[in-house]
Amino acid sequence: MYEALCNHIVYILARSAITIFPQRKDGRRDFRVWNAQLIRYAGYKMDDGKIIGDPANVEFTD
After folding, report:
1. What Cα–Cα distance (Å) separates residue 58 from each residue in 4, 30, 35, 47, 49?
2. What are 51's strand-pairing partners?
3. DSSP code per residue over 12-60
4. Mind listing the GO biological process terms from this record (predicted)?
């Protein structure tokens, strides 16, 4: 999985692309990327309520 993701990153440096992994099957390990995109900015909520970074990712990076 790590190698596939690294290959994807190298490939997308010159073009837009999408990587599609196989369908889940019972009894077999599956692939998961937990956030909406492979590369995206983190979002943090500060003590004063101000958000630094991407507001869409505050819950994920909290």
Report:
1. 27, 26, 11, 13, 11
2. 45
3. HTSS-----PPPP-TTS------SSSSS---EEE-TTS-EEE-GGGHHH
4. nitric oxide biosynthetic process
Whether residue 40 lies inside any domain: the answer is: yes
State the residue for tokens 């994920």. 60
Q: What is the pLDDT along the chain (62 residues), one digit of tens a residue?
A: 788 888 888 988 888 777 777 888 999 888 777 766 777 778 999 999 999 999 998 998 87
Question: Which residues constitute the domain of residue 61?
Answer: 34-62
pTM here is: 0.44
Q: Residue 6 corresponds to which amino acid?
A: C
